Amino acid sequence: MSEVTFPEGFLWGGALAANQSEGSYLAGGKGLTTVDMLPLGAHRMPVKLGLEKRFALRDDEFYPSHEAIDFYHRYKEDIALMAEMGFTVFRTSIAWSRLYPNGDELTPNAEGIAFYRSVFEECRKYGIEPLVTLCHFDVPMHLVTYYGSWRNRKMIDFFARYARSCFEAFEGLVKYWLTFNEINILLHSPFSGAGLVFEPGENHDQVKYQAAHHELVASALVTKIAHEINPANQVGCMLAGGNFYPWSCKPEDVWAALQKDRENLFFIDVQARGAYPSYAARVFREKGVEIVMAPEDADTLRHTVDFISFSYYASRCASAEMNEQNSSAANVVKSLTNPHLQRSAWGWGIDPLGLRITMNMMYDRYQKPLFLVENGLGARDEINAAGEINDDYRIHYLQQHIQAMGEAIADGIPVIGYTTWGCIDLVAASTGEMSKRYGFVYVDRDDQGHGTLNRVRKRSFWWYQQVIASNGRNLSFE
C-alpha cells in the first residue's frame, strides 16, 4: 500500500447523531421527534417512507431511539474514549426538540442549551473540534402534526429561530456547522428525511420538491445568519454521496446514471451555487411539479455554503431498465447490484475507488473544500473468549477508503477532514438494529434493547489511534 500524505491540520475523528446515540428521548424537556416514531421491525420502512402515518407511539412496538446508547448520560466517558484515540474533530448533531420541544416556541429550552454546551465544552477540554449538524433526520413531531412539517413554509422561520439560538448559545465552542444531514434523502425516505406523510391521491413529487425548496431556503438563510453572528463560522451542506455508474456503455444506461446523479446532486447544486440548476425546470415539468416561491427566495438562495460535506459508503449502479424488481433493497437509494464489487453483510457494495471518483466529481463540479463526514462498515461484531473484538474486516474497509481519500487529496482536492460513521456503536438509521455495528467502541446492547451499555474497545480502536497519530501515514496493522 503506497503512502499517502495528508495536509497539516487535517481533522481526524468520528461521527454520531443525537437521535441514534443520546436516548433519554423525553429527558430535560425534550419533545418527541420523527425518529422517536420509528419502530424496530416490519413497520419501520413504511413509516420512514411516509406511507404509514405514525403520529402516536404504540405499546406493542420497540422504539430503538428512545434509549439508544445513552450518550445523554455517558457523553463524558464517550468523549474521553474519542480523546484516547486522538480525535481532533467530533461530528454530532443537536436534537432540535431538546432546544424547541414543539418547534414553534419563541425561546429555547434552557436545559437543552445547557446539555449541549456541556458536551461541546467537554470536546474543547481535549482539543476536539465539534462539527455540528443542526437537523439530522429529526423534526419535532408537533411541527409534523400541526404544520405538515417541511411542506409548510412556516418551517423556514422555525428553523431559522432554532439555528440562531444555536449559533448564539455555542459561539466560541463550535465553528463548523452543517445545516441538513443527507438532504437528498428527503426524496428517498420522506418521513425520516423531512417529516413528510402523504395523503391519498397526492402527487408525491410535488410534496417532496416543495418541501425541498423550503429546506433549501432555510439552509441558505441560516448560512447567512451564521456568517452575520460570527464571520469565522464555517457552514456546510451534506450529501448522501456515491456516484451512479452506468450498468453498461449503452447510451441509455449512461443517460440513466446521469439522471440519477442529478437527482441527488440537485440539492447541492442549489446550496453550493446559489440558484436552481438549469435541468430542474424540465424535471419539474415532467413530474408535474410547480414550486411555489416567495419573491425574496432567489436572493436568499445566493447565500451559499463554505464547504461540501458528504457521506460515502458505496457507489451505485443504474440502467434504463431499472425497476422495483431488479433494484437492491439494501438501501433507500435504489441501485442495481454491481457484480464487480464485494458486498457488506447488509448488501452495500464496497468500492474504495468509488470514493475517489465521487470526490473528484464533486470538486470538479463545485470548487469548494470537501469534508468526508460519514464513512464506515456496518458489520456484526463478536466478542471472543478473551473479551476481544477483532474487527479486521472494518480495519481493511477503512484502510482502503482512507487510502482512496488520500489519493483524491493528491489529485488536488482540498479536504478539511474525515469522520468515520458511528465511531461508537449506535442504532442503525436504516434498520433500527444495534447488531449493525460501525464503531471502534463496542456497546453492550442488542436489537431488542437488552444489555449493560458497557463500552469495549475493538481492535480497530488501536488501529485508528495509530492512523491519527501518524496523520494518515501509517495505515497498516499487524
TrEMBL record:
<comment type="similarity">
    <text>Belongs to the glycosyl hydrolase 1 family.</text>
</comment>
<dbReference type="Pfam" id="PF00232">
    <property type="entry name" value="Glyco_hydro_1"/>
</dbReference>
<dbReference type="InterPro" id="IPR017853">
    <property type="entry name" value="GH"/>
</dbReference>
<keyword id="KW-0378">Hydrolase</keyword>
<keyword id="KW-0326">Glycosidase</keyword>
<protein>
    <submittedName>
        <fullName>6-phospho-beta-glucosidase</fullName>
    </submittedName>
</protein>
<dbReference type="GO" id="GO:0008422">
    <property type="term" value="F:beta-glucosidase activity"/>
</dbReference>
<feature type="active site" description="Nucleophile">
    <location>
        <position position="374"/>
    </location>
</feature>
<dbReference type="GO" id="GO:0005829">
    <property type="term" value="C:cytosol"/>
</dbReference>
<dbReference type="GO" id="GO:0016052">
    <property type="term" value="P:carbohydrate catabolic process"/>
</dbReference>
<dbReference type="InterPro" id="IPR033132">
    <property type="entry name" value="GH_1_N_CS"/>
</dbReference>
<dbReference type="InterPro" id="IPR001360">
    <property type="entry name" value="Glyco_hydro_1"/>
</dbReference>
<dbReference type="InterPro" id="IPR018120">
    <property type="entry name" value="Glyco_hydro_1_AS"/>
</dbReference>
